[in-house]
Structure of SSD domain-containing protein:
Amino acid sequence: MAIFLYKLGSLAYRKKWPFLAFWLILMIAIGTLAGAFAKSPSTSFTIPGLDSVVTMEKMQERFPGAEDATTTASGTIVVQAPEGGTLTDPAVLAEVNEMLGEVRATGVLADSETIVDPVMASQGLQAQMVPQLEAQGTPPEKIAADLAAVSPLSGDETTGVIAVNFDAATVGDIAAEDVDAVTAILEDYDEGDLKVAYNGNAFGAAAAEINMTSEVVGLLVAAVVLMVTFGSLVAAGMPLISAVIGVAIGILGVQLTTAFSDDINEMTPVLASMIGLAVGIDYALFIVSRFRNELIKAAGGNDMEPKDLAEKLRGMSVATRAHAMGKATGTAGSAVIFAGLTVLIALVALSIINIPFLTAMALAAAATVVVAVLVALSFLPALVGLFGTRVFAGRLIGVKAPDPEDESPTMGLRWVRRVRKRPVAHLIVGVLFLGLLAIPAVNMRLAMPTDGTASPGTPPRIAHEMIDDAFGPGRNAPMLAVVDTIDVAAEERPAALAAAIQEFVSTDGVVNAQVAATTENLDTAQVLITPEYSATDPQTSETLQALRDAETGFADATGASYGITGVTPIFDDISDRLQDVLLPYIAIVLVLAFLILLLVFRSIWVPLIAALGFGLSVAATFGVTVAIFQEGWLGIIDDPQPLLSFLPIMLIGLVFGLAMDYQLFLVTRMREGWAHGKTPGNATANGFKHGARVVTAAALIMISVFAAFMAQEMVFIKTMGFALAVAVLFDAFVVRMMIIPATMFLLDERAWWLPAWLDRILPKVDVEGEGISHITVENAEAPALEPAASR
């Protein structure tokens, strides 16, 4: 592999235009196809096999017109009268009807003639329900409770809800301009006397628009770090341009995939952008940094400032520079491939959980990582070749950017010497620090995104709060029971249905239960259940579980059965599934980490401490994220919420790959030194000196890129950006730069122990490019370069 990469890097440097043209044409082609065929991302978060999903499927089978609540193209308009007034006031009612008239006139809603103001809708509902319930002998108090549970007008007549359906099959089929046409009218009236907000599936896309601010901020900070690292404006631009090309291709590819898959949701491209930008810059950084080292060697000195290197470059031949790029690609490029492979494995492993939308998010991010690796190995050398001798031009005054090959002590060497003097103290401090930060993680609560977790001040959040205040929290968290009486005698079905309603009403946490629909022969019924608490309240989950626990007794007593579905139960089941698979997934990732590093480092202890260190950094990240975003510690977040259900698993998958990157780039140089005769302690110190500067720069770039995504309005992206930034901070600077070297010093020679039988069966992995160490400028094109194994 090292020889192939050497040839690829040197060829791309010399024959730059075909490589540059290939990637640019590919980007334009994918962008053109995406513009022509891409669809709106999906908003579905369902998982096949969940109790609530199975119940939903049964309901749709028995009631052919029933829609999937998670994908229906519907929304809710919430209106509130001016302070001191009610919606029944003639002037207020006239303004509401004027607004609804304009909404109907847009022509984008289905059955727009049925859209009426909440007062009229309430009166019509009362005229329909009361006679029916009285004829059935329903007690007056139950009639009043049923009306209150479904009335579009609040009890004090100040707030009303209006259900609307867009003229589309699913929410993903709604044109953005159609949503904008309606929301523009609503927002215009909200500026007047009325208070108007909106939420629901159809309006979800308008709730949190994704902008490019995060990417721009991340790139600017990365540029500063790269300029300090290389001491050159031009060299700093190489990783940035390379990463932008890779991310652009990845994001456009994700958008194009929406034409073929319904599992691509609105968060998928943002996550792909986040991880692709970070690793794209880092991988290019590793190669350009190694290229710089090779040029310094070719120039005949190790102690060389950027200005000296720029002067030497002008006298170098193209063959010498191409050889340096080949060596850089064959060495650092080999490590980049293996580092990318670790990220890839961690992300692809998410597919074993069998959650379609999560699998789509992981595969999209994985594909972007693959593109980032390929761009770094082929486009980047060509780009560097394009600048030729000017690649390290644009020198920054006052920035020396020392090379790690320099014999003088670097900051990294001074730090590792401190660790070497007191390894036990540094190990204990590092473990205790991360362990204490991990404590709040025991209180972690997971929930799916709802209008109630939207950013404060956004229309969906405002609408949610208006409904909460006027109708009660449970109005925003309805459940739907599907009562199956097909095995019950026809004459006994009404009694079984009445028993089901009584069972539901008597359950703690249920405010109301009433029949919403029945089949003609009463073999199936839909029962609307209104809980007492909100969708993300733990007590709602307890109520759902109590309803399900009572099903066995109900079936034994009546012969009928029921299941619970709806958005709230579906989201609750998804959270439970994700929480249930969290520990198994962590175990899988740790085992993968151990096996991969066992293969690379040919050691038992190195992979073990690397995997355990990863577990510590992840636990500490969960603790800090829970403390700040869920519990509201330090007052940083003014709207604490449960963590989104799929954040922990996605975080583990991403951080695993990044952590192994740092482990790889630091410890491979330690092993190289040990294999060439250094004592274990000296090898550890020297390897740390060589890798610390680049890994520090890479970590700072990762942290800045991820932290910049906290500026996004989407809660999941904001929290994920924070968690990833903190995870990189802990893993790079506490685990990899303190715990790992401290442990290596304590283990000494034992750090590289591997049973002889295992050493014989493990395949050899040339991550450091040992196979190209014999290549020089003179023999680079010789046939002898081919049989590397014969050396």
